[in-house]
Design brief:
single chain, 180 residues, Aminopeptidase, 5 helices, globular
Length: 180
């Protein structure tokens, strides 16, 4: 699978923007223009994936000294369930091999309109070497669980550190955060 690095020069890429806006609930999205600005300001690894010439998905990773944050991961809806997400995750894990990695996802343990999807996603990551940290955070009404791969532990204080770094570049004024 071919990888292409995305920069803010790709702001007009309709395929990327459309997948971003349809793969994640609106409340989990940073406005597209703000996200693309952040690609220049932060050391974000924004990668698009292709099978041949066909765009199939993307990832956004925030590489950090202590651990990498797999922030966004999306595969085109009509291609899901065909092993493409597995291929992308395998390539991503190879790129960050030997480094601790975290990701946050909508918690499968909290009431939601899509419990089966959350359980499948959670199982996918567990099968691929991630473990549950039992760290949860609620952003407005959305509860997230943090999964980790690699050495060490991950705490709420670690999550606060990431959020503080993110806050330096973008933060919605009306968002509330609370421990779960």
């Amino acid at each position: 699978m071919k990888e292409v690095q995305i920069t803010s020069a790709d702001i007009d890429r309709v395929d990327l923007q459309q997948l971003y806006q349809t793969a994640f609930p609106e409340e989990e999205q940073i406005p597209w223009k703000e996200l693309m600005r952040m690609v220049d300001e932060m050391p974000l690894d924004f990668t698009a994936y292709y099978e041949g010439d066909d765009f199939v998905g993307f990832t956004i990773v925030y590489p950090r000294k202590t651990f990498n944050w797999f922030w966004y991961f999306a595969v085109r809806e009509e291609l899901r369930g065909r092993g493409i997400g597995q291929q992308i995750l395998t390539q991503l894990m190879e790129r960050y091999k030997g480094q601790s990695t975290i990701l946050d996802m909508e918690s499968p343990d909290h009431p939601s309109p899509n419990p089966e999807q959350r359980k499948r996603r959670h199982g996918f990551y567990l099968r691929n070497g991630f473990r549950d940290t039992h760290v949860y955070r609620a952003f407005d009404d959305n509860v997230f669980t943090i999964l980790m791969m690699g050495e060490g532990t991950f705490t709420k204080e670690d999550y606060d550190e990431i959020l503080e770094e993110l806050h330096q570049h973008w933060w919605p004024e009306d968002m509330t955060i609370k421990d779960e």
